[in-house]
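seq as requested:
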Amino acid sequence: MRSDYPSEARGRRFFFLAALVSAFGIATWIAVADPLSGNESVETTLAVASK
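struct tokens:
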């Protein structure tokens, strides 16, 4: 198929590479930032609104 449609094969490869990089970036951000930890600091909207 790559020999029949070389530009489509390059486009598909770019799409999968971009999706892989995005998934890796999101997974890294979740691991580092830990957004679901429930740590409520004084700067969060919930902490300010509850005062």
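Helices lie at 6-33, 45-49.
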